[in-house]
């Protein structure tokens, strides 16, 4: 480590001691000796200590999970219920109660929840303001403030992001493979997360990825957004009940436009699409072959999401863990202040 960083052995040793005492690293048996001298101490990320709380609110369910520093899911809670009849305060209060259960269970398991990230099916502005979530009927909702009304979450840093964006980031971390891909989140609404060279592309205002409102049939079915013929009216989770072939064709039409415009090499189908991937695949690929200009030169790879339906909340939890990994000194300062 000293050679890789350019730091002295004494400095590296002091830094490692801080990380061990701060509960970020743990010593393990050293690897087998390969030469002379005292064997180095083995180190690994701890499975106790800081953890991320991932939350998700979608049209027909609430979800929470806790992921430790190693990436292991330690707690998982899902409640299936239609959120459209509830007003935003009620829905977020119910999610807050679920989050409180997850946090208490995690702390009983020896973890310290470092923060929470919330995945929502809509457009998010800075500081957790949900500008619009058409399928929930939300507009200008301060989700962070509502979650902080729950006593067990009042002291917890909370961030909010679009569910497809967080799912794409979760997929990127877990697979560690394709650095450029388009993630499609198939729920009652449809979202997309675009990863370019290992970085999430958000657009100028952070509102990119609303593929569910790409028009596939201009004079088609009316959509909740006020337009007609939107993709989610033909390939959203409720529309799938009307026929998977039509959903696959609509997805293929929309995805062909994205590939022609952005030249993405890989498309990942998540959410409700992951379990039925093989049933949708042929219809989507038929449209891609017909409509993508370069299909004969470089066919697009289509695959199911590795994280399946849990991708958004897993990605949300991972956003917290990633922040701790990238700034361990910041976490150590925060954790020391807890006991002052």
TrEMBL record:
Entries under InterPro entries matching the protein: ATPase_NBD, ROK, WH-like_DNA-bd_sf, WH_DNA-bd_sf
Taxonomic superkingdom: Bacteria
UniProt keyword list: Kinase, Transferase
Molecular function terms, GO-annotated: kinase activity
Pfam families assigned: ROK
Record family assignment: Belongs to the ROK (NagC/XylR) family.
Protein name stated in the entry: Putative NBD/HSP70 family sugar kinase
Organism, scientific name: Actinoplanes campanulatus
């Amino acid at each position: 480590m000293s050679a890789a960083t350019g730091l002295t052995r004494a400095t590296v040793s002091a830094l490692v001691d801080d990380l061990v005492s701060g509960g970020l690293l743990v010593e393990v048996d050293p690897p087998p000796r390969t030469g002379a001298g005292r064997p180095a101490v083995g180190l690994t990320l701890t499975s106790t200590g800081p953890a991320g709380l991932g939350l998700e609110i979608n049209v027909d369910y609430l979800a929470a999970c806790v992921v430790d520093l190693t990436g292991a899911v330690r707690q998982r809670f899902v409640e299936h219920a239609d959120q459209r009849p509830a007003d935003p305060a009620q829905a977020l209060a119910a999610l807050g109660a679920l989050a409180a259960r997850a946090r208490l269970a995690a702390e009983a398991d020896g973890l310290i929840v470092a923060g929470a990230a919330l995945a929502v099916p809509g457009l998010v502005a800075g500081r957790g303001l949900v500008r619009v979530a058409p399928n929930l009927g939300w507009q200008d909702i301060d989700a962070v403030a509502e979650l902080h009304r729950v006593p067990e979450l009042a002291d917890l840093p909370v961030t909010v992001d679009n569910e497809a964006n967080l799912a794409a980031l979760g997929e990127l971390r877990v697979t560690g493979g394709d650095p450029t891909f388009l993630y499609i989140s198939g729920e009652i609404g449809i979202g997309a997360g675009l990863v370019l060279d290992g970085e999430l592309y958000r657009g100028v205002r952070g509102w990119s990825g609303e593929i569910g409102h790409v028009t596939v049939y201009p004079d088609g079915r009316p959509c909740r957004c006020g337009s007609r013929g939107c993709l989610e009216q033909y390939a959203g989770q409720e529309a799938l009940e009307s026929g998977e072939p039509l959903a696959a064709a609509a997805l293929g039409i929309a995805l062909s436009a994205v590939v022609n415009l952005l030249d993405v090499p890989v498309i990942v189908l998540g959410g409700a699409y992951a379990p039925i991937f093989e049933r949708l695949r042929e219809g989507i690929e038929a449209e891609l072959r017909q409509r993508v200009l370069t299909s004969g030169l470089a066919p697009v790879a289509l695959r199911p999401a590795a994280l399946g339906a849990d991708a958004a909340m897993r990605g949300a939890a991972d956003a917290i863990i990633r922040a701790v990994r990238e700034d361990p000194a910041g976490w150590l300062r925060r954790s020391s202040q807890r006991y002052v």
